[in-house]
Amino acid sequence: MSDLKSLIIPDKVPRHIAIIMDGNGRWAKQKGMPRVLGHRSGVKSVREVTEAAAEIGVGFLTLYAFSTENWNRPPAEVTALMSLLVETIKGEIRDLNKNGVRLAAIGDIEALPKSSYKALVEGIEQTKNNQRITLVLALNYSAKWEILRAARQLAEQAKTGQIEPSDIDENMFENALSTRGIPDPELLIRTSGETRISNFLLWQIAYAELYFTPVFWPDFGRKELFEAILSYQRRERRFGMTSEQLAR
Ligand code: FPP
Q: CA 188, 16, 73, 147 torsion: positive or negative?
């Protein structure tokens, strides 16, 4: 079998890929294991997919690691996820630096447990000079939270006279989102067969190609990432134009 990587067109590699990592729990259940072991295996996929994305020149990889709604899970699972996060970040810093991975985060991270917040901020600080790929963790994130926060912030600025309501355009709004400075994802992947967006990057995915796969997150690796990119490259992105206009 030829390596899928050789089929990828370098000029058409998405600059930013966002992933809803889903199916850890079902993967574990299928194997008769506790859900938490599914999350642990999910970390292996995070590592493999980040490395594969960097290898082909993806600039930004955003992973939905914990949504605002995930607080509703059983407390033991929430605690386990938070410790896994701290453990993973602390344990990976050396490798992140070795592989040129810059860590970033979006979401209400200040509301995370102190130890998770601290590990995250340290991870971000210690990898800030890396330039090969930016790994953005969406943590305690929801798109509606982010959009509301931006709207409030701009309303405050208008109230104090710093801006006029008519100044608010796409650019200004984007600068008030937590993804400020990060290009919009061209490709959004969701694993595990669910075909929902679940409050993820609602503003930023306006023109993203959506890719859904039945594969559970712990089974999603390099090969599955390259298949998703190949599917993306076969599609025609028209941005509202006709095929004829694009051919010109
Ligand atoms: C979804 O599976 C997965 C999550 C809510 C958490 C994802 C977290 C990790 C992969 C580990 C930590 C990540 C980093 C970046 C250190 P699910 O539990 O919803 O699965 P289910 O739908 O089958 O129940």
A: negative
Distance 21 CA to ligand 1 centre (A): 6
Question: Tell me: the pLDDT tens digits for 221-247?
Answer: 999 999 999 999 999 777 788 888 877
Residue 159 sits at the vertex; the CA angle it makes with 156 and 162, to the nearest 5 degrees, is: 85
Mutational pocket test of ligand 1: of 27, 35, 39, 93, the residue with most ligand atoms within 8 Å of the beta carbon: 39
Ligand 1 pocket check for 24: Cβ under 6 Å: yes
Q: Which of 41, 126, 117 is nearest to 82 (CA)?
A: 117
- Dist. CA 172 → ligand 1 center (Å): 33
Task: Identify the structural domains of the chain with CATH numbers, from first to last.
Answer: 12-234 (3.40.1180.10)
- The whole-model pTM stands at 0.95
